[in-house]
């Protein structure tokens, strides 16, 4: 990257003339610096002569001056590693173009021109999986965020919208199926066994939504009639052997289309909707217009190879990508700082969809768990950023839980404050007003203010301030009045030392201890640093249930007696609050035990309270097993660590496991009985059977901690009796953590049974990498040398190493070897797939919040990575921010 182009960096370098040379910094891109592009590109015609090793791309752009931008007599066409074979303007060879780094600069003096550029690319050499690449013999593309510039020279930014016409040709035997965005308008045979197809997409779109697929694929096809009577052809394209596992994806697509009409009034706008499953993919899936490209993980499922969680994830991701057709495609983003405009909103939309499909209570708990384990650590670490970031060096690093999941929570708060009807009116106004535009988060907020009738003046801070607010709660009682004292504190984050108070909507209820009832839920909005709210009519002090349904993405700090939490865990009528009370009970106990330590009496009292609450949950016949499965889950190590300023992973792990083992022993007969009961329920996709499978393995997890021999026997039996992946994987997960003969047997059996099925073999790697087995780290090292392991497939890399980085006892082993392994991986993977490599950096970046001995080891590994002079922009940015 040419640093001379960035004035701020150049200036810094001059001032430091006597200092040792700085490593080359990729330029910092700032939100404030946005300017519209001087040229419009209303049309683009692309021609692809396809080959796995050699593809020729001819691109013809129709350009005209943008009256809304500053006039320029040049046009900058972004490229990334491209060479222009020829450049023509208005039919004449252009002699006066030049390169600025990777970009092509072309002088243009008239009002409108036609620019033709020819480039040649080698998809087989594209291991970054951005742009046009080869995957299992087929060709496919990934253009978000900046992949189109690896295909051809173009203003590769989301505010340049064009109508695409694409002609593709190639050998018919190799690529019998040729797909692109929009509709196929013509096709034919060519010379020498080639064929061609021409596609036209009538909807103007930015380059990041372009897609092309060529390969030997088959489709599971269906139809959907939209609310205004449009007949849409649906296809799920896969390799022939995968066809039997596509039914769930197709059904999920139909449900998503139906739901978006009902819930948001959004209808599909083409006659064709294609989904293609690809084995090598950096992310989950991509919403290209009319041609979604998916990681196979989020398409393929049947009961023998996919767990219930896999089925749910597929339904959710299919919905997410489909919903982007409106929130992302019809209304797109002006620049990448606005990413949460499409991602936060679309995550909220997919969450609401899944709540309707799978049940609201459990889905809400799952979503909060994801937020806490993935987003909270971002907010409290060196990579903290607002949902609308202010600057970046590499946009791929900002596809984060903050932009996605916290972004969804922020819009959910607007919905909570407005109520569902007014929220819908705000959404309608947003879509109507900005259809066909590249919009901003500010546009969304304004539409909500006008359409939903909300005053969001102060609420805008949620877009600009990073950090998870902490709300301190105290309930005071005197006479017949209960007074709720609330205060908030938004912690400092990198670049944002001082924060302002934000509006925090908290749904609350006050329970009468004697009757176990409350008089109705209320919404309290804390808009100041401190405030108090009085409630009359309480002769006795009530029990407070707060942040019901997790109405605000904050942490709640309060001191409550164990008895109140046991009360709420057993009988709160808000399922989330019930879950939360149980979590609070366990969190406060483990944090105290792993922090300052507990004396015997305090430990016994803490454990007894948890036991009482857990026993009540196990015995509650009115609870469905799916919800029971949530309530019995212990808080994750990550979430527990988040509660401590400086965490000792070893102590937290020991306390958490110790508690689990104690509960497993204390409630052994209850867990055995539960396992026996749910084992009787036959396989089915209905809620009761799914709940049974969930709690079945959870019972084993407690028993494995409390009575390993008994659990090994039961897990072996569960594995052998399993007629579905949920039970089989659950049993194998438990066995993998134990030292028993069945462990090896069943790991071998599982591998043999599924050899050749990539997604299931990923599970086999993961189970060993997340295992509680004391030698897990050695197992991971051996698995890295397994013939099925490769750095070229992101799913496989994640299945081993991402799983390992999330395994606290192995990753944080005292020797520092876990850190070394992840650093070695980052260095080896970076030149192959920078985007995937950079995603491993945050696990080491937590060092400031870890006890000093481990922190030094983690930092040392980050420094070792930073010392490499060949880092990608992705990894460079994450490592320097983590050390900063
Ligand atoms: N927009 C997609 C996410 C996505 C982003 C970048 C990618 O490049 C590798 C791929 C997908 C979504 O939100 O689903
Ligand atoms: Zn998305």
From TrEMBL:
Gene3D superfamilies, per the entry: 2.60.40.1840, 3.30.2010.30, Neutral Protease Domain 2, Peptidase M1, alanyl aminopeptidase, C-terminal domain, tricorn interacting facor f3 domain
Family (UniProt): Belongs to the peptidase M1 family.
Catalytic activity entry: Release of an N-terminal amino acid, Xaa-|-Yaa- from a peptide, amide or arylamide. Xaa is preferably Ala, but may be most amino acids including Pro (slow action). When a terminal hydrophobic residue is followed by a prolyl residue, the two may be released as an intact Xaa-Pro dipeptide
Domain annotation Peptidase M1 alanyl aminopeptidase C-terminal: ranges: 563-883
NCBIfam families linked to this entry: pepN_proteo
Domain Aminopeptidase N-like N-terminal: 120-209
Keywords: Aminopeptidase, Hydrolase, Metal-binding, Metalloprotease, Protease, Zinc
Segments of this protein annotated with the region Disordered: 1-30
Any Pfam family: DUF3458_C
Peptidase M1 alanyl aminopeptidase Ig-like fold domain sequence ranges: 467-558
Record GO terms (molecular function): alanyl aminopeptidase activity
Record gene name: pepN
Entry EC no(s): 3.4.11.2
UniProt-recorded name of the protein: Aminopeptidase N
UniProt domain Peptidase M1 membrane alanine aminopeptidase: residue ranges: 249-459
Domain of life: Bacteria
Cofactor or coenzyme needed: Zn(2+)
């Amino acid at each position: 990257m040419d640093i001379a182009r960035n004035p701020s960096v150049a200036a810094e370098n001059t001032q430091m003339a006597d200092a040792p040379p700085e490593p080359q910094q990729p330029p910092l891109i700032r939100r404030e610096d946005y300017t519209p592009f001087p040229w419009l590109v209303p049309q683009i015609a692309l021609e692809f002569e396809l080959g796995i090793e050699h593809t020729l791309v001819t691109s013809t752009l129709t350009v005209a001056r943008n009256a809304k931008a500053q006039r320029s007599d040049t046009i900058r066409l972004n490229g990334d590693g491209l060479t222009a074979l020829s450049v023509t303007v208005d039919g004449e060879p252009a002699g006066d173009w030049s390169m600025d780094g990777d970009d092509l600069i072309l002088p243009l003096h008239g009002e409108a021109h036609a620019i033709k550029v020819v480039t040649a690319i080698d998809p087989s050499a594209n291991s970054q999986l951005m742009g046009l690449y080869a995957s299992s013999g087929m060709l496919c593309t990934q253009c978000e965020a900046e992949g189109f510039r690896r295909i051809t020279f173009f203003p590769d930014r989301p505010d340049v919208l064009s109508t695409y016409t694409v002609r593709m040709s190639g050998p018919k035997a190799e690529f019998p199926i040729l797909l692109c965005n929009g509709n196929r308008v013509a096709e034919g045979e060519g010379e020498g066994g080639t064929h061609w197809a021409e596609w036209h997409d009538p909807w103007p779109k930015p380059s990041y939504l372009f897609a092309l697929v060529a390969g030997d694929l088959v489709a599971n096809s269906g139809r959907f009639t939209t609310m205004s009577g449009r007949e849409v052809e649906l296809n799920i394209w896969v390799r022939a052997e995968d066809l039997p596992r596509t039914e769930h994806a197709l059904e999920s697509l139909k449900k998503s289309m139906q739901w978006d009409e009902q819930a948001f009034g959004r209808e599909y706008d083409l006659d064709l909707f294609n989904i293609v499953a690809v084995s090598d993919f950096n992310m989950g899936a991509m919403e290209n217009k009319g041609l979604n490209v998916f990681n196979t993980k989020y398409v393929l499922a049947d009961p023998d190879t996919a767990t219930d969680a896999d089925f749910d994830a597929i339904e959710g991701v299919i919905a997410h990508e489909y919903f982007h057709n409106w929130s992302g495609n019809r209304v797109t983003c002006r620049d990448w700082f606005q990413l949460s405009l499409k991602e936060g909103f679309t995550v909220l939309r997919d969450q609401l969809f899944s709540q309707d499909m799978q049940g609201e209570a459990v889905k809400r708990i799952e979503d909060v768990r994801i937020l806490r384990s993935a987003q909270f650590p971002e907010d409290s670490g060196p990579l903290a950023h607002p949902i609308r970031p202010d600057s970046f060096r590499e946009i791929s690093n900002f596809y984060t839980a903050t932009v996605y999941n916290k972004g969804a929570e922020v819009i959910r708060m607007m919905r909570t404050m407005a109520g569902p009807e007014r929220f819908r009116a705000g959404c309608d106004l947003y879509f109507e007003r900005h259809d066909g535009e590249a919009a901003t988060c500010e546009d969304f907020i304004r539409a909500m203010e006008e359409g939903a009738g909300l005053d969001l003046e102060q609420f805008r801070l949620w877009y600009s301030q990073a950090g998870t607010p902490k709300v301190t709660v105290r309930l005071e009682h005197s006479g017949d009045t209960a007074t709720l004292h609330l205060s908030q504190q938004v912690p400092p984050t990198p670049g944002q030392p001082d924060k302002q108070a934000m509006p925090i909507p908290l749904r609350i209820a006050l329970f009468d201890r004697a009757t176990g009832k409350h008089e109705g839920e209320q919404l309290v909005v804390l808009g100041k640093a401190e405030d108090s709210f009085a409630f009359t009519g309480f002769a006795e002090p009530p029990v407070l249930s707060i942040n019901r349904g997790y109405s605000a993405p904050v942490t709640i700090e309060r001191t409550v007696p164990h008895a109140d939490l046991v009360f709420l865990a057993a009988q709160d009528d808000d399922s989330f609050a019930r879950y939360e009370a149980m979590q609070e009970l366990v969190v406060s106990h483990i944090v105290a035990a792993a922090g300052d330590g507990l004396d015997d009496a305090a430990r016994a009292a803490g454990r007894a309270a948890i036991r009482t609450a857990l026993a009540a949950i196990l015995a509650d016949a009115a609870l469905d097993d799916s919800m029971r499965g949530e309530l019995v889950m212990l808080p994750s190590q990550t979430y527990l660590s988040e509660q401590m300023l400086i965490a000792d992973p070893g102590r937290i792990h020991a306390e958490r496991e110790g508690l689990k083992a104690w509960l497993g022993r204390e409630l052994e007969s209850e867990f055995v009985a539960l396992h026996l009961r749910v084992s009787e329920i036959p396989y089915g996709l209905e809620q009761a059977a799914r709940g049974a499978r969930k709690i079945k393995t959870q019972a084993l997890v407690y028993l494995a901690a409390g009575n390993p021999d008994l659990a090994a026997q039961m897990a072996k039996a569960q594995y052998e009796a399993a007629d579905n992946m949920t039970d089989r994987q659950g049993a194998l997960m438990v066995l993998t953590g134990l030292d028993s003969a069945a462990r090896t047997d069943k790991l071998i059996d599982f591998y043999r049974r599924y050899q050749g099925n990539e997604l299931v073999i990923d599970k086999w790697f993961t189970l060993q990498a997340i295992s509680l087995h004391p030698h897990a780290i050695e197992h991971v090292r051996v698995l890295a040398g397994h013939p099925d392991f490769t750095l070229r497939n992101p799913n496989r890399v994640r299945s081993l190493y991402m799983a390992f980085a999330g395994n606290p006892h192995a990753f944080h082993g005292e020797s520092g070897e876990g850190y070394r392994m992840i650093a070695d991986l980052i260095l080896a993977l970076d030149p192959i797939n920078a985007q995937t490599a950079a995603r491993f950096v945050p696990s080491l970046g937590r060092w400031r919040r870890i006890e000093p001995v481990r922190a030094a080891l983690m930092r040392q590994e980050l420094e070792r990575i930073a010392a490499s002079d060949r880092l990608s922009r992705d990894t460079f940015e994450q490592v320097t921010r983590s050390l900063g």
